Structures are given as C-alpha cells and as structure tokens.
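DM from R.C. (forwarded with permission)

"hey, sorry to bug you on a friday — could you get me a structure for this? deadline for the figure draft is monday and I only need the backbone to look sensible"
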Amino acid sequence: MKKTKFLLVAVDILPEAIRKTAEVKELLSKRPELTVNEAVEKVGISRSAFYKYKDGVFPFYHKASGKIITLALNLEHRAGVLSKVLNFIAQYQGNVLTINQNLPLGGIANVTISIETEEMKVSIEELLEALSQMDGVSKVELVGQS
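My reply, with the result:
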C-alpha cells in the first residue's frame, strides 16, 4: 500500500482549478443543502475539474480536526486574559488537555495550550483567528498537531 505524502503549499501559487476545488469543498461543508452542481457553478469551476481534485485537496487545518493541536500564545500580563482564552476554547467545545504558562517578561506571558479538537464547533482556522482578535492576546500560533 502506497503511503500518501502531503505538502504545505501557499494557496496563491496553486493552479486555479485546485484553489476553486478547495472553495467548492468549503462551500459544500458550510451549506450542505447545496448540490455539487450548484456549488461548482457558484465558484466557477467545471464538475470534471472538481471531481479530479476533490479527494486530494483540503484546507490545512482540516487534517487536524479530531486531533490534538498545540498553540503558543503571547498574552498580556493582566488579570483574566488567560481565563478568557480558556473560556473561549471551552465555549466551542475544545477540550484543553495541558496548559503551560511561563513567568511574564516585559508584561507578556508565553502560554502553550494543547487542545483536543474532535468535538470543536469551529474550525481550527476560525479558532486561531478569533483568539488572535481577543483583547490581551498579542500572538497566536499553531506549533504542533498530532
């Protein structure tokens, strides 16, 4: 059995058919009432191109769903910032497995959080974006997944 290899590639260098295949898959996952025909028409790709690439194209974070991810965050040293981050993760059914917080230096605390993502109600990409927008969070980075 041949093992599939994966590459992490910036979306802007991919051919249009592959980018649009990813768009169709995202559209279908967000709007399950759509048919493939309707989705490919909305995105502007042929059905044959979609079917050619659909089994090999998926968002980067999709492969991490149902897995354990590790995030590195820089948090302002203020009361309640870490608590808000943890409550936010819990609100979307992320299961926090470990937390490691270093002593704050220069008003910033480095925090590492491992999260089980299987039951999460948002994508990992959406989680990262939302966390990065939170007051008191200056950096969020996905540093590992297993």
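R.C.: lifesaver. Residues 11-58 form one domain.
me: no worries. The two ends are 22 Å apart (CA to CA).
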